[in-house]
Amino acid sequence: MKFMKLGSRPDTFYTAESVRSVSSEVSSDLIIQVKGSRYLLHKFPLLSKCLRLQRLCSESPESSQHQIVQLPDFPGGVEAFEICAKFCYGITITLSAYNIVSARCAAEYLQMTEDVEKGNLIYKIEVFFNSCLLHGWRDSIVTLQSTKAFPLWSEDLGITSRCIEAIASKVLTHPSKVSLSHSYSRRGRDDISCNGTESQRHKPATKGWWAEDMAELSIDLYWRTMIAIKSGVKIPSNLIGEALKLYASRWLPKVSSKDVYINKQEASEDSDSDSSNEVTSKHRLLLESIISLLPADKEAVSCSFLLKLLKAANILGASSSSKIELARRVAIQLEEATLNDLLIPSVSYSNDTLYDVDIVMTILEQFMLQGQSPPTSPPRSKLGYERRRSRSAENINFELQESRRSSSASHGSKLKVAKLVDRYLQEIARDVNLHLSKFITLAESIPDFSRLDHDDLYRAIDIYLKAHPDLNKSERKRLCRILDCRKLSMEVCMHAAKNELLPLRVVVQVLFFEQARAAMAGGKVTELPSNIKALLAGHNIDPSRPPPPLSTASTIAAEDQWSMSGLRSPKSKLSSTLRMKLAEDDLDESDLQSEGGISRTSKFKAFCALPTRPKRMFSKFLSSNRNPSEKN
């Protein structure tokens, strides 16, 4: 750190009976009061350099012995006043980055200009500031920090703007050409080795060497400095992102889900806490300032950092525009997120859910909007023929490869996001206050092709059913309609076949596709698995004895009388068993109509009923149960 000494006389100031004075053979004739402190001084050395004191003394009446001058609004207080007073007496003073701002404001207040006396204090401070402090990195940082105590004076004197310009220019300059002045980041690297030499001194500084020191600035000064840096020469966006991450980790509060719950309880009891509101407002301003500084490039910051900012925005009650901007940024790189990143605590007082599901749904909506796959071939136009003639075949092939690679990346990100959403569903399904509609909406926000299997989705549904035992039959059916039994693995099918929480129709579908898969894999099915037999026996169904034929004349409840076409001539033991199971399931026709209309009803019947003429994928399975005479 650089410093400058002015004056040569020793310090002769002393305190007697709460009055500061200076040792001199000449009796004092001037009393100056500065913010409650009294100084007993001499007119000659002070008035010869301070134009304001000359004017004040000429305006105030003289007493018999001392003339009194009041300075109630003196910038910098008694410390800054003593610097100016000692300079007038020729006593040695030391100026550095820590006190130069207060001394400069005090000298300006006393009007210690060149018009009063050549080589006055303002001139000497300006020379030291411009020629020394602004050339050092650490000196510029400390000087800029000290302007916070005198914001208006520093702005009017141009101290703040000059410090910001100096810092920005150094950030944009190679660190080897910058005088670090033993900055914080430099000291961290200058460790002493065993033989007493500074082993790290000659190692080059990293690209982000400036971030640690700038993190010491208050948010308003930091924001202005970052704007100056971003408006200068092009700087890598990832360096800006790393600097913002460091600043946020230092100043933003670390709040957990437990803390959010406690804060909600305290807020409900005492909503008029001025101190807590003040702290929250301060952190909210800091957060929104960081969000406004985020670079536009995707690789500038990680998705995890963006979601941490979103959690903080949720907790601190940031503006809707800030939350939407963060949600949009998260959606762009959602495939990088983890489950813990998405578990954003809910701070809404209108519901008691543990996590904020609405903000995650907003992120998924943004993800689906921006995740449209590009075309796999270049777009055609009226001049396409002429353009193709003017371009080489290599260029066309390159464009095709690039577009397909981009399309593949988009599809791959959707597959990752689908797995992430299913794991998120498993976590929030444990919340007893989570509404069924939100769970279903979130599950259906992922397109069907993004889920290669439904194992994780099944686990989420199973967890939700266990956490919400009060669901009625209609709600359980509505929940299970998002499940595709054809995409369940064998292990999950075995679990689902014994799951008493599932609607009976879902169990039948699982059994059907398990048998179909076994037939396609083995070529024939000789006997039902033991778990299926146990399930059917639990419902008083004997798979070894064919049931009576089902028809519209059978005595079936009105609510279960839905079409039996395609089930009149059974060819296998499994077909009759499945039809009996479907007949026992009291699925309301109105329930199907309300959810999907006639098209959904017919689709569901065709899905569950075995047709008279089996499709090709089941022909092998059905033929395996026929005897040789039937095959001929």
TrEMBL record:
Domain NPH3: residue ranges: 208-517
UniProt KW keywords: Ubl conjugation pathway
Location of region: Disordered: 370-390
Pathway it works in: Protein modification; protein ubiquitination
Pfam families associated with the record: NPH3
SUPFAM superfamilies reported for this sequence: POZ domain
Sequence similarity: Belongs to the NPH3 family.
PANTHER family: OS12G0117600 PROTEIN
The protein's name in its UniProt record: NPH3 domain-containing protein
